[in-house]
Amino acid sequence: MNLTEIRKLIKMVEESDISEIEISEGETSVRISRQNNMTATAVLAPAPVAAPVAMIPAAVEAVSNTEPDDADVVKSPMVGTFYSSSSPDADAFVVVGQSVKKGETLCIIEAMKLMNEIEAEYNGVVEKILVDNATPLEFGQAMFVVKPA
User: Fold this and answer.
1) C-alpha to C-alpha distance for 33 and 42, rounded to whole angstroms
2) pLDDT tens profile 95-140
3) Contact 91/129 with Cβ under 8 angstroms?
4) Which of 3, 35, 51, 93 has the highest CB neighbour count under 10 A?
5) Which CATH number, 3.40.50.1360, 3.40.630.30, 1.10.8.60, 2.40.50.100, labels domain 66-148?
6) Is the pLDDT confidence value at 34 over 90?
7) Can you spell out the DSSP letters for 72-85?
């Protein structure tokens, strides 16, 4: 696979709703993953690649840079897909500036076809939402910044 083909794949990912694609050709594998800032990153590796996205340095760096030092961060307890509402046409569970109470649903993470409600662990105010709707999550990835009330 040459550089021109890889660039075409990156452009295809950036212009579509695809969040990640992996293509293997012979002994070479290319994984292109869209980051939270909506740009695609390509990683060229020998095939077969069975490693999770967390091995991509840009993805790990993007997650690390989004975590504030002085605030309480709600992190993903599992690998899955982040959903901000119960259905595509429903309102989000929380928005920036909203007060939340302990036990209130913040989001849903779909993992292995199971919908897992993630609840607030304490009363507080949502300061930031760090994940876009319907995007993949890694274990421990920052999702929300909630300032305790």
Assistant:
1) 7
2) 999 999 999 999 999 999 899 999 999 999 999 999 999 999 999 9
3) no
4) 93
5) 2.40.50.100
6) no
7) -EEE-SSSEEEESS
